[in-house]
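sorry for the late reply, my laptop died twice this morning and i had to redo everyting from scratch. anyway the thing you sent over, i finally got around to it. pasting the sequence first so we're on the same page, its 442 residues, then the predicted structure underneath. double check i copied it right bc i was rushing
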Amino acid sequence: MFGCHIGKLFQVSVSGGSYQEGLTAVIQGVPPGLVFTEQEIYGDMLLRKPGSDELSSPRKEPDLPVIFTGINAADTIEGAGNEGHTNGTPLTLLIPNLDRHFIHIKQYQDTNRTPRPGHASYATFQKYGPDDDAIGAGIFSGRYSSTIVASGYIAKKVLQKCGIEVFSYVKELAGVKCPTLDYGMVAEKTLQYKKMRRDYDPFYQQIYVKGRVRTEMRFLEKMRIFAEIEKEIDPIRATAAPMERRKIEKEYGVHHIVNCPDIAVAQEMVDAVNRISATGDSAGGIVEIVTRGVPVGVGEPVFNKLDAELGRMLGIGAVKGVEIGAGFGVKDMTGYQNNDRMHAENRKVIFDSNNAGGITGGLATGQDIICRIAVKGTPTIDKKQNTIDKYTLDNRELAAITRRDATIVSRIWPVAENYTALVLLDYLVAHYGYQALRSKMS
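ok and here's the structure:
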């Protein structure tokens, strides 16, 4: 299988499947001396995982990451203080599947003859044959996006050291739109939303805050504890405090379910999704990703334009469109209206607008990079649908499926955020190298 790799200088290769033993991400290009923990990585991963609120699938997969290679197991010399630091070698992250029960596998076995409309199952069967990993859709499941979140967190960690910030939020859901807001406020609200989710996540509190699993533990010791956790998923989930809407709004200033910075609009989004879900259907929407602090000139021309690389977010399952800046809105603009005119103030360039979304000619302009993705409604729905028997090609009817996400928009924003970080760091490394070489020429 090809296609499970991204990047040139900051590279990520992923593998695994929804009901295999787990998933992996192998990251090359992580600089030495970086310090992070599995708890930190999980703090982003819990934003994507299912079973966290009324809009998501009831699967109980905790998505606990394990750092397997790439960090120093001990001080390299006595007293060096570099235990746990990255050492420049490939970093491997493991994400074991813990909520993998036969009853769920049997449900897939009973329905795998009939491809689910909107899923990849027909095309994958034709490509890979009867040995296609059709249990839970394998690597074509949205579950693989956990590897993007995990590896993208590492990229964000490096970007932060370079003064670059990446954040995202739900811009539109089920036809309900968030108004244009100040990005400084949006960034702060997103940070508060993430903090709220960590504070309320039972696995974050019971496994990491209480020190049951620590990054410095040996791998085999972690696996012993993971085997225990696999049997304790329901009891751990039961320790979660109820996410009371008004209490969370007062304490954190965010909505308790949807990461939309306008709390009233966020609730309208939830209400709209629930109305659609009550009919057995699902809802789509738009996620906006904002990157601030990217140096002017980051990117490449022609085939490797920065905006073209961000367009590869079509590789995220359920994403059917990517736009930068004004995006498809440019069709209704004249050239004069679309152009981002500029002037200088105190020898600093100021742009009058940002219709280009912070990228022209494939290169960053120094403005905020604005990207949006269009996310389709979850294809797994509680409605009967026409399909076929993929072995005999007889016509069949697919029964309604109740174990599903009412929408995946509220879970996909951290995937888009961290995917963006992967692309930007790859280009930033190239930019720094090019500029360093260029300085030697003068």
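The chain has one domain: 5-440.
thats about all i looked at so far, will dig more tmrw
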